[in-house]
Design brief:
This protein is an alpha+beta fold and 118 residues long. The chain has one domain (8-116): Alpha-Beta Plaits (2-Layer Sandwich), CATH 3.30.70.20. 29% of the residues lie in helices and 24% in strands. The protein contains four helices and six strands. A hairpin with a 7-residue loop joins strand 4 and strand 5. The longest helix is centred in the C-terminal third of the chain and has 16 residues, at 101-116. The model is unreliable at 1-9 (pLDDT under 50).
Length: 118
């Protein structure tokens, strides 16, 4: 019989503070402010899809007894995030937003080049 591993851990301090203050949105930024991940707690149903698709193990599930599935997603290691946005794209409830200054800059450069060639 296969062993099941419980991927849910106790609530982290940032999320505990947010819940205590009644905040439904938690944003974690990298030390260089180039990448940030925003979790909209009120949208997260604890399905774990984002954790499963993250190639860098940036996310994990935490215990949240006030939620339907009993868990919420949290950011574990923002410095490891490569802003691939798989978590954002795969979240069925739009509970995650990823921002990357580098990717935003590249987008703007491409638009400028496209506009200049017209």
């Amino acid at each position: 019989m296969a062993e099941t591993v419980d991927t849910k851990v106790p609530v982290a301090a940032e999320h505990e503070e947010a819940a205590a203050l009644g905040e439904d949105t938690v944003t974690i930024s990298s030390s260089d402010n180039q990448t940030s991940v925003t979790i909209h707690r009120h949208y997260c149903k604890g399905c774990e899809i984002c954790v499963e698709v993250c190639p860098k193990e940036v996310l994990r599930m935490i215990v949240a007894t006030d939620r339907w599935e009993g868990s919420l997603v949290e950011v574990v290691d923002i410095e490891a995030c490569n802003a691939c946005m798989l978590c954002e794209y795969q979240c069925p409830d739009f509970a995650i937003e990823v921002y990357s200054a580098r990717k935003d800059m590249k987008k703007k450069e491409k638009k400028a080049i496209a506009a200049a060639t017209k």
